[in-house]
Amino acid sequence: MLQFPLLLDQSDGPLYQRLYRALVQQIRCGTLSAGTRLPGKRTLSSELGISVNTVDTAYQMLAAEGYVESRPRSGFVVLPFIQEFPTTRTSSVPDAAPQPAPEKNWKFDLRTGSVDADLFPFRTWGRIQKELLYSSPQLLTYGAPQGDENLRAALAHYLAAYRGVQCVPDQIVVGAGLEYLLGLLAPLLSGVCAVEDPGYSSTRHILENSGLPCCAVPVDKYGLSAQALEQSGANLCYITPSHQFPTGVTMSAPRRAALLAWAAQKPDRYLLEDDFDAEFRFDQKPLPSLQGMAGADGAVVYLSTVSRSLAPSIRLAYMVLPQKLLPRWKSRYGNYANTVSRFEQQTFCRFIKDGYFTRHLARTRNTCKHRRDALVSALQTAFGKNTIQLNGIHTGLHLLLTLPNGPDEKTMVCTAAAAGVRLAGLASYYHTTPAQCPAHTVVLGYGSLSESAAPALAALLKEAWSQPSVSSLNS
Amino acid sequence: MLQFPLLLDQSDGPLYQRLYRALVQQIRCGTLSAGTRLPGKRTLSSELGISVNTVDTAYQMLAAEGYVESRPRSGFVVLPFIQEFPTTRTSSVPDAAPQPAPEKNWKFDLRTGSVDADLFPFRTWGRIQKELLYSSPQLLTYGAPQGDENLRAALAHYLAAYRGVQCVPDQIVVGAGLEYLLGLLAPLLSGVCAVEDPGYSSTRHILENSGLPCCAVPVDKYGLSAQALEQSGANLCYITPSHQFPTGVTMSAPRRAALLAWAAQKPDRYLLEDDFDAEFRFDQKPLPSLQGMAGADGAVVYLSTVSRSLAPSIRLAYMVLPQKLLPRWKSRYGNYANTVSRFEQQTFCRFIKDGYFTRHLARTRNTCKHRRDALVSALQTAFGKNTIQLNGIHTGLHLLLTLPNGPDEKTMVCTAAAAGVRLAGLASYYHTTPAQCPAHTVVLGYGSLSESAAPALAALLKEAWSQPSVSSLNS
Fold first, then answer.
1. What are the φ and ψ backbone dihedral angles of B305, each rounded to 5 degrees?
2. Which of A324, B140, B352, B432 could form a disulfide with B357 if both were Cys (CB 3.0 to 4.6 A apart)?
3. Are B46 and B33 in contact (CB under 8 A)?
């Protein structure tokens, strides 16, 4: 329960922020454990001698950041604080506190969005950037709304060669992140959008924010099925066919064909294909994109980003629109300024055209394959081959670990956290059907896990998950 | 009228693009003059032996880019091709054509968004960028959703010192351009938004695209009046009080006070203050921002950008939210990834903190003041002091030129273009009341016009506007 005296820090920020920070601290250090009800707003306001509005603002901030949730007739209830991790694709760092509580010092960070700075091509990127800055003053002006022409031409060429995407540069839109592009795309479409369950909660959030109601459709071991999609009544479908997030399933060819047939049945049907980490396929030749199977005027919008292939902080994503959506796009956004710095657009363009991108991908893919091999091998050694199940291991940069006879998922996450390992449970990615979630399963992102560290990680997890009782962690 | 044979180029792009390019070329070279009706879609489709859809797509593209407009019962009508210039704040380069018709070779480009590459601090910017790239691998990861904490702290400090803005860093949101920020802001508000008439058509377009209906309220010589605003029934108001775009009016202090009083009357009223070029005030001390007059929890959203102060291609804008909008912001966008590259955020942060930004602004302001002086003096010399009126000259980087006894505005624009001077007429910025537009008036952006070139420009304009008849230009 809430510990008094509630110590507000002495900063000169607004009172609601200081209250917010004090509450965050109690949640993070476990004083306020999961399931605890926060005091009523009026109660706390009179106890602290501050206004109800101030308390309400602090509570709303906690709710917005997932520390608490508002429940009917219970008021605000504290959520397990590990819950802040799942949306690692966007930011996982709460930004509200000017002086945030210190981050826990993790031994291993296995969130799925983690990147390894050692793999970033600093030297080449820096050299191109510098050359462009001094040689290209014309890059100071506004560029083309959809992105610089030569970058789109380079992307069209790259996507055709490596992902089988069929398009002309005019179909490509470059923008500051996938979320931004989804936000622009949504108003061009109408109806209901199916999202994968489990899947990215942030994608659903963005689509709904942008006016497209969503419904969740379950993913099985072949991916999302056209039959389930048909039954859902949706006319749009957001999917990650190359490497379903988070289950790691690669959608089977018959399923792909069935989805394309579904999309072709009615003119307002579209598939939104998020191909975010297809570059990291280790063991088989990657399947071509759905977009490529559908063709340049098929009903597929292809989306991808450099967040995984280069770095999340370089805000550059791209989308390939079907030709029939282009007039709608141009009429709505034809005079919007592009959102990506032209210096970064041109740096990336040169990086692709001079062959650095494919070389960088090959090198990174190779490194990540070794990391995957090392992790799989270390886990099998530590737990025993028949004790654990590993899924979604053929494409990068995360896999699923199931421990059929181990503790429940929540305990797995909490004990791992106690041992210094940051990871997420699979259930936290389910929108509406957590009951269908395979039990005892966690998601391990290994994008930034070195080969040599894998045995130590596996040993830590083995020890954490072998303890008889750990349910006292949050009490 | 349309000239046959309509020569489609031999590129391998889609047919609609080749048709689009052929039509653009005829419009640009004047074969298709303003006012001409395009052939009906069915007519053209059967004449060319192509599908009606292809013709329609090409026509829609032309309409989206402002080459033609669709009129009831007339079909598509060609607009004066000079009309593509006004929205220079965003891009003025049509992006649809993979091989666009060559741009006219302008002797002088007086569009308002033009920048002078010579003023950009290449050396300092490049050095900081390089240092950060090699020293800060942590910048590869996702940053905070509202923007990096230290950048927001630096902005809060800068805005307080130079624009009288009152805020804490937590109220600041950094994003990839003003348009992007407006698009996020609009769904947090509701009701009807008044926009200035004349004003930015792109702002209105974005607000309406984002679900906020707009109405236009006239600007007089003191700015927009609270009385007119009250009568409009709007509860939101987008304004450029420091330097109204395009009239150049600085809103008077009583008008400011009246607007703030208007906003304070009802809880759903907000002023959206766009302070885009307030850094360029030459002759008097700048008035503090409306936001500063209203206070940190007043009903003002403050918006600004580095498009004028650094370069439009560096996609970095910022907005200061009233505290009461913060919970709504965080609940809707709390887990959106920020859209600005962290390397650029940090480069700009260091640029501010190390004092380069204020020095750069002082230097640029000084240069632009000399340019303004040179332009004003050259125009007065060429035309005679009593023959022309110059307005909006105290704040940068554009002014209005009226030639009371000169040709009409459209002729002024066309003859200037024929003489190699690219500029826009004032009427093109009017949303709904072009009848109220002062006659014979054009907008001259001098951000990239060197002092030494001013006399030659003035002489060119004098000659162009002294010719007896020029109405044959478009025929």
1. -155, 160
2. B352
3. no
Are residues B231 and B218 in contact, defined by beta-carbon separation less than 8 angstroms? no
What DSSP assignment string belongs to A55-84?
A: HHHHHHHHHHTTSEEEETTTEEEEPPGGGG
The strand ranges marked E within A321-464 are: 389-391, 398-402, 421-422, 424-425, 441-445
- Asked if the Cβ–Cβ distance from A313 to B342 is below 8 Å, we say yes
Out of A68-82, A412-426, B440-454, least confident range: A68-82
The tokens describing A69, both together, are 């949730």
> Which residue does chain B place closest to A325, by CA atoms?
B57
Q: What whole-number distance in Å separates Cα of residue A236 and Cα of residue A192?
A: 6
Residues β-bridged to residue A238: A195, A272
The stretch A99-116 carries a mean pLDDT of 71
Q: Tokens standing for B229?
A: 């605003």
Describe chain A by its helix, strand, coil percentages, rounded to 5.
Answer: 45, 15, 45
* A to B CB pairs, distance under 8 Å: 239
Residue matched to tokens 């909490």 = A414
Q: Is the model more confident about A266 or about B101? A: A266
Between chains, do A340 and B146 touch, taking CB under 8 Å as contact? no
How do beta strands A424-425 and B108-109 pair? Answer: unpaired
* Radius of gyration of chain B measured on its C-alpha atoms: 23
Residues of B in contact with A96 (CB under 8 A): 170, 330
Evaluate whether A334 touches B65 at the Cβ level (below 8 Å): yes
Q: Which amino acid is at A361?
A: L
- Report the SS3 class of residue A258: helix
Q: How far apart are CA A230 and CA A129, in angstroms?
A: 48
Alpha carbon B281 to chain centroid distance?
A: 18
For chain A, the C-alpha Rg in angstroms (whole number) is 24
Pairing of strands A441-445, A223-224: unpaired
Answer yes or no: are the C-beta atoms of A5 and A46 closer than 8 Å: no
Instruction: Tell me how close the Cα of A337 comes to any Cα of chain B, in angstroms.
Output: 5
Q: Work out the percent of chain A whose per-residue pLDDT is above 90.
A: 53
Give the torsion sign (CA, B142, B147, B152, B155): positive
Kindly write down the DSSP assignment for every residue of B93-123, as one continuous string: S----SSPPPPP--SEE--TT---GGGS-HH
Q: Do A340 and B176 touch (CB under 8 A)?
A: yes
CA-to-CA dists, residue B343 to A177, A249, B356, angstroms: 15, 34, 17
Which segment of A419-423, B3-7, B338-342 scores lowest on mean pLDDT? B3-7
| Structure confidence by residue, pLDDT tens digits, B127-172 | 999 999 888 888 888 889 999 999 999 999 999 998 999 999 999 9
User: Using CB atoms, which residue from A133, A145, A168 is nearest to B122?
Assistant: A133
| Token output for A248 | 């790691």
Which structure tokens are listed for B186?
A: 């609009």
List the end-to-end C-alpha distance of chain A, in Å, as a whole number. 10
Per the CB < 8 Å rule, is B331 touching A64?
A: yes
Q: Where are the alpha helices (DSSP H) in B284-408?
A: 290-294, 326-333, 342-353, 356-383
B12 closest CA partner among B103, B106, B98: B98
Per-residue pLDDT reduced to its tens digit, B187-235: 999 999 999 999 988 899 999 999 999 999 999 888 898 999 999 999 9
Nearest residue in B to A135, CA atom: B122
Q: Do B117 and A138 touch (CB under 8 A)?
A: yes
Residue-wise burial string across B225-257, b where 16 or more C-beta atoms lie within 10 A, e elsewhere: bbeebeebebbbbbbbbbbbbbbbbbbeeebbe
How far apart are the C-alpha atoms of A88 and A80, rounded to whole Å? 16
pTM for this prediction = 0.76
Token pair belonging to B147: 């923007």
Q: Are strands A317-320 and A300-305 parallel, antiparallel or unpaired?
A: antiparallel
Residue A275 has pLDDT above 50, yes or no: yes
